[in-house]
What does this fold into?
Amino acid sequence: MTSRPSLSGVVIAYQEADRIADCLRSLQFCDEILVVDSGSTDGTQDLARSLGARVVERPWPGHVAQKEWAIREAQHDWVLCLDADERCTATLVAEIEALRSSGFGSHAGYEMRRRTSYLGRWIRFGGWNPDRKLRLFDRRRGHWGGHDPHDHVQLEGSVGRLRGRLLHDAYRGLEDHLRTIERYTTIMAEGMHARGKRARPADLLTRPAARFFRFYVLKLGFLDGWRGLLIACLAARYAQLKYAKLLAMDRAEPTRPPEDALPGTFGTSAPARD
It folds into this structure.
């Protein structure tokens, strides 16, 4: 008979006291729940411990590095990785438990569908649905990769598909969405700049337009009403900000003083970068 593998539920968190409880409750079927926290001061750590999680505090090194460190810190080789704003459905839990009974089969990992709630409604179309995420895998045959802040699992071996869903509360509100765009586009632009990527002025027009068309038309975002339009507009804004910041980094030069500036009255250092 195939032995039943142990499973670690792994979550990274920071200031998530308002929404991590549902995530951790949905992981109660795991043999271990590990929360790697980046120094929350809102009670996230105490709440996680009260729900049976083992909490480890670690300074934030970036999305990919934190998630990779977390799965290596887990006690078991099979890991189920969730963000604090995600939770398993009962159907997904039952499906994973059935897989565990058969030793997880021959696959190195499994991807699942994720359904996202946005401003009070489940999103059905656009770039957010269907949305498959590889979150259940054998860490001996996989690791976290990608470029911050958009991480993904890289596996050596085949990937199976589950029918059960993850539920995702993407943002606390519109302001949170806008703040996330501002933060993530800075991280993306800095990473692209470090890897030698370059932006052209035309990117500020073509990239946002293409992204809006993809989200709103090709992916049928218009069927989600005003929310679909808003998501497409903000997806375009994301693209425009990312390339605007990259362009500024590429072409930043010290400002030369005007000819009639008095000595010592005009700085020559490069403008601060975002």
User: Anything to note?
Assistant: Confidence is low (pLDDT under 50) at residues 268-274. The chain has seven helices and eleven strands. Helices lie at 20-25, 44-50, 63-73, 90-101, 174-194, 203-218, 225-251.
